[in-house]
Amino acid sequence: MQGRKAINKFSVIKDDNGKAVFDEQGIVEVISNYFHKMFVSPSGDHVGMEDIVLEALSPCISEESNQTLIKELTTEEIRQALFNIYRGKAPRPDGFLACFF
């Protein structure tokens, strides 16, 4: 276990200026700054971001399709779906075969 810990630990990392950082706190700061810059836009740049988010959240299916997707299943639909699965197959990772259901 000790050998694995040593392998999974940074001993040196370069910051944005190419300066080598050796201490643990400095390494954490370099990594944090890297991801902060990647995921946080500079101030004033967020104006277009709201439009992008709203576009991503806009509905992609029609109201008719949505109603079909959220309607209650009938017993017949469930029976038909189960009988369409090969008896020896496990449709989920829990390992229960279709014949169990």
Feature tags:
about 100 residues; mainly alpha; 2 strands; elongated
Descriptive overview:
By secondary structure, the protein is mainly alpha-helical. The protein folds into 2 domains: 2-42, no CATH class; 62-100, no CATH class. The chain is 50% helix and 4% strand. It has 5 helices and 2 strands. It has helices at residues 2-7, 24-39, 47-57, 63-70, 75-83, and strands at residues 13-14, 20-21. Strands 1-2 form a two-stranded antiparallel sheet. A hairpin with a 5-residue loop joins strand 1 and strand 2. The model has no long low-confidence stretch (mean pLDDT 80).
Short synopsis of the structure:
The protein is mainly α.
Overall tally of domains: 2
Q: What does the largest sheet look like?
A: 2 strands, antiparallel
Amount of helix: 40-55%
Low-confidence stretches: none
Beta-strand percentage range: under 5%
Q: Strands of the largest sheet, in order across it?
A: 1-2
Mean pLDDT: 80
| SSE topology string | HEEHHHH
Number of separate strands: 2
Query: What is the terminal-to-terminal distance?
Result: 44 Å
Silhouette: elongated
CA radius of gyration: 26 Å
If helices are DSSP runs of H or I spanning 4 or more residues, what is the number of helices? 5
The structure class reads mainly alpha
